[in-house]
Design brief:
Blueprint (H helix, E strand, L loop, with lengths): L3 E5 L12 H8 L3 E5 L19 E6 L2 E5 L13 H18 L7 E6 L6 H7 L3 E6 L12 H14 L2 E4 L2 H11 L4 E2 L6 H5 L16 E6 L8 H10 L3 E6 L7 H12 L3 E5 L6 H6 L3 E5 L4 H4 L4 H9 L3 E4 L12 E3 L2 H16 L3 H12 L3 H14 L1
Helix pairs in contact: 1-14, 2-3, 7-8, 7-12, 11-13
Length: 386
């Protein structure tokens, strides 16, 4: 029934050292994909080469096309939405060229709650099948968003949506209250085969550990990460070397100071963002993987991508600050405080000393049941049963 997937993305398609649900979902769809990058910054208005109306396509591979959008036109400058309607008409022309004039009948249009102001374009496009995927408690993050306007934009998207999804029970309940409609629980997924495929060699950068145990963290280093727990870990366990993989994001001043202290430690190595296809090799070469988040409303509503990638690798994993599903309790080592984080890490070390192939297989089997392909299939079923 569905031959095409049109995604309004959360980030540029080739953002280095970073992945998100909107891009990874395109991996799970078996058909033609067009990924629309987020609107260009208003600063591009000064760039004479920036396009006002046209959508610039580039072929990523045989089945994936990336569209760079025209400049975003401020609503106050486009009172009657004539500019927006022209842009939407040009997008419709681009899609009709690729998929035919009846493209709406065979296309899923996908948008997350990270791009609320796409609602105006979506309304002009008037899709038949629209999926609204709520992937974070966005308004709990320290960003300068107008709460009332964001929620109003979400409502307008949700009112048109065939299905509204949320990645965690907490976020589902929250969005049902805000949107006043039913929301389907749909946890994140993982490219399990990519992360389970054995690496050919240990990445040279990890040789910095010498004879120490390798402990790894992968993900954006920003305001939701518990750097204090990381620092305590390397100070209390002299037998470990910590590797940080990921780009740096926004942090509060005190948090940034703790992060600097962490980087100054002689057994901490920051490797920056790693290409996604190379990340499994880095994770497989670790002895223990960690996911220390700060306990907060945003963390409570989250469903971290990295947790599923860690499970696919199969390594002992220590998790803090995020809810752990009941069926995951025996597969990871959970911690609620910095002190309990140390205890959880000791239990992970115990597994290293007494390895169990069975627990590794269980972790990987859990990941295999939660692939992006399965999440897409579940999404399509949700559309058809709504």
């Amino acid at each position: 029934m569905f031959k095409n997937w049109l995604a309004f993305g959360m980030s540029a398609y080739n953002t280095p050292g970073f992945q998100d649900t909107s891009r990874l979902m395109t991996r799970g769809f078996d058909g033609e994909v067009v990924y629309v990058e987020p609107p260009q910054s208003l600063l591009r208005w000064r760039n004479a080469n920036a396009l006002m109306w046209d959508w610039q396509p580039r072929e990523h591979d045989a089945h994936h096309t990336v569209l760079t959008p025209p400049l975003s036109i401020p609503k106050k400058l486009d009172i009657f939405s004539l500019g927006l309607k022209r842009q939407a008409s040009n997008l419709n022309t681009e899609l009709s060229y690729r998929w035919g004039h009846e493209w709406r009948k065979e296309t899923v249009v996908y948008v997350t709650n990270w791009t609320p102001y796409q609602y105006r374009l979506i309304e002009c496009l008037n899709p038949t099948y629209l999926v609204f995927d709520c992937v974070d408690d966005v308004l709990a993050f320290p960003y300068d968003w107008n709460r009332d306007k964001v929620i109003e934009a979400w409502k307008r998207i949700a009112n048109r949506a065939s299905s509204v999804l949320a990645v965690s029970p907490t976020l589902r309940d929250q969005m049902e209250t805000q949107l006043n409609r039913s929301v389907t629980l749909m946890p994140n997924g993982v490219d399990a085969q990519l992360f389970m495929k054995p690496a050919s060699a240990v990445p040279p950068a990890l040789e910095l550990a010498g004879d120490k145990l390798r402990v790894g963290f992968a993900g954006t280093l920003n305001h939701w990460i518990n750097f204090e727990a990381m620092l305590t870990l390397v100070e209390d366990f002299p037998e470990v070397t910590l590797f940080l993989l990921g780009r740096q994001g926004q942090m509060a001043e005190q948090q940034a100071q703790t992060f600097k202290r962490l980087l100054d430690h002689d057994r901490v190595h920051y490797l920056g963002g790693v290409p996604y296809e190379e990340l499994p090799g880095y994770l497989q070469a670790q002895d223990v993987l960690i996911l220390p988040r700060i306990a907060s409303s945003a963390s409570e509503a989250s469903n971290p991508l990295k947790l599923f990638e860690y499970l696919a690798v199969g390594k002992p994993t220590v998790v803090g600050g995020v809810p752990i599903a009941q069926d995951l309790n025996r597969l990871v080592y959970g911690a609620e405080t910095s002190l309990s984080y140390q205890d959880a890490f000791r239990r992970a070390l115990d597994e290293l000393r007494n390895p169990s192939p069975g627990i590794v297989r269980e972790r990987q089997a859990y990941a295999m049941r939660r692939t992006w392909s399965e999440r897409v299939r579940s999404t399509l079923r949700a559309i058809q049963t709504t």
